[in-house]
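Progress narrative, Year 2. Work on Peptidase M15C domain-containing protein from Pedococcus badiiscoriae advanced from sequence curation to structure prediction during this period.
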Amino acid sequence: MTSRSLYAVPLLCAVLASACGGGQPDSPAKGGPGAGAASASATSTSATSAPTSPTPSTTPSASASPTSRATPSASVTPTPATRHTSAAGTSSSATSLAPVASAGAEPTVRFPKNDPAVGSGANATIGRVPDGVWKAMVGYSWTSGCPVGRSQLRYVRVNFWGFDGKRSRGSVVVNASIAGAAAAALSQLYDLRFRIRQMRPMDSSWGRNPKGPGANDYAAMAADNTSAFNCRYVGGQEASKVYSKHAYGTAIDVNDFENPYVADNGTVYPDRYWLSRRGPAPGVFSSSGSAAVRAFTSQGLRWGGLWGPPDYQHFDR
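Result:
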């Protein structure tokens, strides 16, 4: 070995030592394993954070009670609606679904001419009852002596999936105290692609109730209409002159035809076809554990399907 080789060996060893060992482990700040774990943790936290649901921009000054006798407020001016985020935090990109096949019994109108959907997802909004809507309600779903007045009610607009497979838009009038819950529940039904036949306020278009105060709920049930406020007595028991929860705006009926109501005397409204067909089906609230029922009960609303006799269409607080 020459003297040049003798000097080269230690130099080569020094170079190899520098390249192959002795360095400090990478820190999270430099993108090592620690950084990867921290990044994954942050991503997971962000992805699972549930969106919060805004509450109505205004609330009634006092809670409605069965003994109160509110009068309509002539000075109420509709305010911009509050947009309500879907409780599930997701929205479908689909623009239509397959129409629901005809069943063994159908409501008076199978595919109503619903208004088209507005915006993406459920796009629920909450606002004061507009003048035009209120005008159509007075003398029908609202009359003098009703337990709540206009200032205690709210107008909820939301997109839904119709039985015709189309994205449609409907509205319900509810008590301000449940407006947020109603908007959240109906938004969840949209995310579940739960079918709704139609959703229109109870007003002059339904005519007057032939058995007492309020708009004609019997006509609305036969047409499978989803609605809420209607200043009427308990359906099928008008002789008792006991106001229904609908008279306070704290109840909502969904898909009356697929989810019938059984009165204390055993009469079934509006049709008994679906009474013995409570399994999963389009527009049907099949059980208390179903996702569609939980959409309401998770918002603090009771389901009438657990009552005896049952009222499958009904949710209230």
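Residues 78-88+113-316 form one domain. The CA atoms of residues 6 and 259 lie 96 Å apart.
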